[in-house]
Design goal:
Elements: H1 7-21, H2 34-47, H3 53-58, E1 62-63, E2 68-69, E3 77-83, E4 98-103, E5 109-119, E6 133-134, E7 137-138, E8 140-143, E9 153-158
Antiparallel strand pairs: 1-3, 2-3, 3-4, 4-5, 5-9, 6-7, 8-9
Helix pairs in contact: 1-2
């Protein structure tokens, strides 16, 4: 049975996690400016309820049945993406377009990271004059769509719920793995 997180617990967890992860600026933690730290704390608070997988699904995040891993560099995985396309083009730290889960070893899912996705204005891979930023970090891209119909876009990952040894905003996390038979054929 899924447990509900109270608003007070979510707020306390958000502040504690922000304090633990944000004391210094480094490649692992990203910029430690006041606004970047405040936005990260906001993202923690907004996504804490999605530790309960059913809450994410109820809020419109559609699960992909396949786990996504780095097929090119073999540098880790994203996990199972859950997209809420209502939040495409959002740069609001409370509204990530995607949540990423990994298998928790007990038949459930554990939230590990989040992503914001913004469409490129001119849809050209050769220009980047509309690159957004969030958390004091520029989005990566422009990138071609990952599936038919997805526009050229910018993306920013944030490993809020599982440390990425390569950095807070790296695309793939080597600490996340896809179980055999869970990846797209």
């Amino acid at each position: 049975m899924a447990r509900r997180l109270t608003p007070a617990l979510i707020a306390a967890a958000s502040l504690a996690l922000a304090a633990v992860t944000a004391p210094t600026a480094s490649a692992d933690h990203g910029p430690a400016t006041g606004q970047a730290l405040a936005d990260r704390a906001t993202a923690y608070g907004a996504t804490a309820r999605y530790q309960v997988h059913a809450n994410a699904v109820a809020d419109g995040y559609v699960p992909d049945k396949y786990c996504v891993f780095d097929r090119v560099g073999r540098t880790g995985a994203l996990g199972y993406p859950h997209f809420n396309h209502t939040y495409d083009n959002s740069v609001d730290p409370r509204k990530p377009a995607a949540l990423y889960y990994e298998d928790d070893g007990r038949g459930g899912k554990r939230l590990v990271g989040v992503q914001w996705l913004v469409y490129d204005r001119d849809q050209k891979l050769t220009t980047d004059d509309d690159r957004p930023t969030l958390f004091g970090t520029a989005f990566k891209g422009p990138k071609p769509g990952n599936f038919p119909g997805q526009p050229v876009h910018y993306a920013l990952h944030l490993w809020l719920w599982k440390k990425n040894p390569r950095g807070l905003h790296e695309t793939f996390n080597p600490a996340v793995a896809c179980l055999p038979g869970t990846t797209r054929p």
